[in-house]
Amino acid sequence: MAKRPRAIDPTANVLQLVKRSIARQDDLREADARYQHDLGKQERRHRRELRESETKYRDAQQAAEKGRIDALLAAQNSAAALTASRAESTAAALAERVDTSAKTLAASVEATAKANEAAVAATAKALAERIIPLEQARYEQAGSKEQRTEGRSQNQWVIALVLSIPSTVIAVIALIALLTK
Length: 181
Fold this sequence. Notes:
By secondary structure, the protein is mostly helical. It is built from two helices and no strands. The chain has one domain. Helix 1 packs antiparallel against helix 2 (145-180). The model has no long low-confidence stretch (mean pLDDT 84).
């Protein structure tokens, strides 16, 4: 019989392969741990940078909003100042108009008072001239009863008229006094 070649025990070879496989897996785990550690470090750095960027962005937005609000406030203040200035000039113009109107009205009232005074004086003179002949006629016709009655009624009318003149003059003077105040 021929000799068979002796069988090689695969155990040593398998053990060596298993050992290398385990070492390789340990190396992979170590590399994965380093990778995870580096990845975590980079993630923390990026998150920190992101927070800083967000903070800068918020600060820039707040500064821009503050500037916008300040500009609006300044515009409102200038509009209020302009409105106040216009109100002052309008008030001054109205005061001038009121003063001018008051002076014009006072002059008009004074002219009317003088005209009324002259009219009252003329009316009083005319009435006095009319009363004198009436009184003379009354004395001349004193003899008869009818003439006396007629004279009395005329005298009463004239007296009423004469008495109404001073009250008219007083009323006109009071009106003038009221209008000139």
